[in-house]
Amino acid sequence: MKKQTGKMTTVRWISLAVAVVLLVSLPFWGGDYIVNIFTLILMYMAIGEMWNLLAGYAGLVSLGAQAFIGLGGYSLAMISQVFKLPFLLGFLLAAVISVLFALIISVPIFSMKDVYFTIGTWLVAEAVCVFFQSWAFVNFNVGYNITVARRLSGTAMYFIAFGVGLIALVAVVIILRSKFGLGLMAMRDNEAASEIRGVKLYRSKLICFLVSSAITGIAGAALYLNLSYIKPTVGFGIDWTVSMVFIAVIGGMGTIEGPIIGAIIFVILRQLLYNFSGFSMLILGIIAVVMILVAPKGIMGLINKKKGFDLFGVKRTVDISIFKEDAETAAAK
Q1: pLDDT, tens digit, for every residue of 142-152?
Q2: What pLDDT, on the 0 to 100 scale, is given for residue 105?
Q3: Are strands 144-145 and 229-230 parallel, antiparallel or unpaired?
Q4: Domain residues for 47?
Q5: Does 188 fall in a domain?
């Protein structure tokens, strides 16, 4: 058994090393189109990982993640276009603004549970969109051209996306390899039982929410740097969250590898459906529904179940049956 475990560890490290080498060297051997595709994959992977951290590991299903995409995009636009400062400061501002906004809305949002939490996050994002449309400081609904993007090469944009994707991936791995990550999964499966066993529910939700918000904001800055234009109806559009949900569901919620595979599939499908923009979201929705019916745990969930494959070595499950007595006691109270 130890020999088999050691072999799996070796395979895991070799696979990760090969993936890193290929990604770092990609701009030097891949064409412009391939580099652009992987730029999109890395950025969508980042936001997919963050939504999956909330929904797949903490059980916090949000439909308002687009609020942080928009805040990130506007942070970068304001830094570079209005204040004429180095655009890299926009990424820092995106993280700070996203965390502050997450702190402000956390109290009312976390007082809601289940579907009410989901609806509440969506309403918050819609309210922010309406506010930005009528706010003179951000140029109302006209938005901004992010001209600094024109001075960036495809290679520079790729490495920005690579950095954002790496930050998201490392953050998730670190969280899930900790006791805090185990507490998130326990909270997801049974809040009452996990609280009795020492998981601080509000603090756990808040930390997870802040981490997800900060990195989603940074990813939003990168996405709009790549798009080079932002306005409220697009920046805070629910299409961003629909994309995150698709990525997580297709790839496999509750797995680190899931959003990676989901992002690859999502970007490729978007490229194939480029000429059918009016039907692309409908087609993606149909694909997601079929996947839910055929493989409810997504592609990686199916692979994990059949092969026990775990690339990042953080496959941890919470057997809440050991909390059964405590949970029944809590329910009785």
Answers
A1: 999 999 999 99
A2: 96
A3: antiparallel
A4: 26-238
A5: yes
- 144 beta partners: 230
- Please, which residues bridge with residue 230 across strands? 144
| Total number of domains in the chain | 1
Whether residue 169 lies inside any domain: the answer is yes
Kindly report, residue by residue over 271-284, the tens digit of the pLDDT. 988 877 667 778 88
Place of tokens 């030097």: 28
Question: Can you tell me the mean pLDDT for 120-140?
Answer: 95
Give the per-residue pLDDT at 333: 46
Give this prediction's pTM. 0.91
In a domain, 306, yes or no: no
Per the listing, tokens 């439909």 go with: 63
Amino acid in position 89? L
Ordered DSSP codes for 21-90: HHHHHHHHHS-HHHHHHHHHHHHHHHHHHHHHIIIIIH----S-THHHHHHHHHHHHIIIIIS---THHH
- In a domain, residue 158? The reply is yes
DSSP H helices, the chain, are 2-29, 32-52, 58, 66-77, 88-110, 115-133, 154-176, 179-189, 191-196, 201-227, 232-235, 239-251, 257-272, 277-294, 298-307, 324-332
pLDDT digits (tens, 9 = 90+) for 290-311: 888 888 888 888 887 777 667 7
- Cα separation, 115 vs 241, in Å, equals 16
DSSP β-bridge partners for residue 145: 229
**CA 161, 163, 169: angle at the middle one, nearest 5?**
100
Structure tokens given for 175 = 């969280």
Question: d(Cα 113, Cα 62) in Å, to the nearest integer?
Answer: 11
How far apart are alpha carbons 40 and 63 in whole angstroms?
21
Q: What tens digit of pLDDT does each residue of 38-78 get? A: 999 999 999 999 999 999 999 999 999 999 999 999 999 99
Tokens 């936001």 found at? 47
Tokens of 128: 């922010």
For tokens 């009795």, the residue is 196
